[in-house]
Specification:
single chain
Length: about 160
């Protein structure tokens, strides 16, 4: 995606770094970032935390998951902030939700809602998004989610740095 070429260039120019903690997108955001030259300078770390167990091991507060569910903006915020802290990166992105699929381990939450948080460490600021999946394949939904994140990340970088 062309927007990520611009994001990687902008992060390099501003000497900023990014880290991601992804669940339902399975590393698609980190993969997209690494498709562009200069990514090795700006991508500090990426974790795919499909299970609650590994979200918690990466710093997400179990009480947040228990109170709001693993499928919530609160969990996405925890993911974004904790991956930023873990990787010592300027920006953290957390993604959780269900892509049109029930989760027998976590029965609560809609099966078509994605929660995204982009965290800016220096400002201690969260950008929070809730989007609905599209009526397409899992692959198309991941592309849709990553494009949405790219557009908002690029906008935030231009407005806040």
């Amino acid at each position: 995606m062309k927007i990520f070429d611009n994001i990687v260039k902008l992060l390099n120019e501003k000497e900023l770094t990014i880290a991601t903690m992804e669940s339902c997108t399975g590393g698609a955001l980190a993969s997209e970032i690494t498709n562009h030259p200069g990514a090795s300078n700006i991508l500090k770390f990426s974790a795919v935390t499909y299970s609650n167990e590994y979200k918690i091991k990466m710093g997400v507060d179990k009480d947040i998951i228990d109170k709001y569910s693993v499928y919530s903006i609160e969990t996405a915020m925890e993911m974004a902030k904790n991956i930023s802290i873990f990787a010592n990166s300027d920006i953290g992105v957390g993604i959780t939700g269900k892509i049109n699929n029930p989760d027998p381990q976590n029965l609560y939450g809609n099966d078509d809602t994605i929660f995204i948080s982009i965290y800016e460490k220096d400002n201690d600021k969260y950008h929070k998004y809730e989007i609905k999946t599209i009526n397409e394949s899992r692959k198309k939904n991941k592309e849709y989610i990553i494009k949405f994140i790219g557009e908002n990340l690029y906008k935030n970088l231009n407005e806040n740095y």
